[in-house]
Amino acid sequence: MHNRYGTLASWVYNLDKPVGRSFGDVEYYLQRLRESEGPILEPAVGNGRILVPLLESGLSIEGFDASEEMLRYCLDECGKRNLPAKVTRQTFEEFSYDKGFAAIIIPAGSFQLLTDTMSAAAVLRRFHDHLLPGAKLVMDLDPIGSFLGPAGPVRRWEAEDGDLLTLTEQRVETDYVAQTTLSHLRYEHWRDGSLLKTELDLFKLRWWGVEEFSMVLQRAGFVDVVVSGNYQHGRAPHKDDEIISFEARRPA
Ligand SMILES: C[S@@+](CC[C@H](N)C(=O)[O-])C[C@H]1O[C@@H](n2cnc3c(N)ncnc32)[C@H](O)[C@@H]1O
User: Fold this and answer.
1) What is the mean pLDDT of residues 48-56?
2) In its UniProt record, which GO terms are filed under biological process (predicted)?
3) Could you tell me if the CB of 28 is within 6 A of ligand 1?
């Protein structure tokens, strides 16, 4: 199974990208959601890195995630702050709510974890159908360049108790037709020089062209598509941008 975000992967995510860490995205989403009235949904909410500051700012936001382990971190972070944790275990492919949302957000390129185009299109349609008329989808995609570079060196994190966590990434396949990469993410948990646990995450991602994704949004029923680079809303992306954001509406 791909993109599982198991025990060690979730632990590393929470050490590397804890609540409070922003890549400019927390501020951007806060700004883009300022006028949204009503509940907001964050699919693939993870450890609550984005959800928690949005809740703290007074927005009514809830989320879902496929990983029990990621949701546990999110619940803990909300608990520590006495925030209402409306998060459930659901997937992009099958999530369902009996209400409409004033906005749906997908930061951190999480949509690229969907690597099959038919299923990605069906998920966009599902987002569309879960929005109130006139409500918006705001999401980020990582640009093609971030996929094709060489995998970095071994990364390491020290846990609270002094244990060591390491991550070694190896790209095992790049499919230029399907626009996907498959990497082996090998996580290791060490204590006093002994290996306690290891975990292999088969990590698959898809890259999208900017025009391609705008068209897919339109085909899913969205209108008023705005594409922006590096969190400068309305500024068309250019080749050196590190993040590309899309905003689109369900017709009123
Ligand atoms: C990069 S993290 C993003 C977490 C959070 N949104 C953030 O901005 O920090 C991606 C998340 O997607 C979740 N995920 C992966 N595949 C999924 C799927 N099919 N349905 C729902 N969530 C999924 C993972 O469990 C993980 O928590």
Assistant:
1) 98
2) methylation
3) no
Looking at the chain, the whole-number percentage of residues with pLDDT higher than 70 is: 100
pLDDT band at 232 (very low <50, low <70, confident <90, very high): very high
> Which atom from ligand 1 is nearest to the alpha carbon of 48?
5
User: What is the pLDDT of the chain when averaged over all its residues?
Assistant: 96
**HEC letters along the chain:** CECCCCHHHHHHHHHHCCCCCCCCHHHHHHHHCCCCCCCEEEECCCCCCCHHHHHHCCCCEEEEECCHHHHHHHHHHHHHCCCCCCEEECCCCCCCCCCCEEEEEECCCHHHHCCCHHHHHHHHHHHHHCEEEEEEEEEEECCCHHHHCCCCCCEEEECCCCCEEEEEEEEEEEECCCCEEEEEEEEEEEECCEEEEEEEEEEEEECCCHHHHHHHHHHCCCEEEEEEECCECCCCCCCCCCCEEEEEECCC
| pLDDT over 80 (residue 110) | yes
pLDDT at 147 over 90: no
- How close is the Cα of 2 to the center of ligand 1, in Å? 12
Give the residue, by CA position, lying nearest to ligand 1 atom 6: 45
Give the per-residue pLDDT at 146: 86
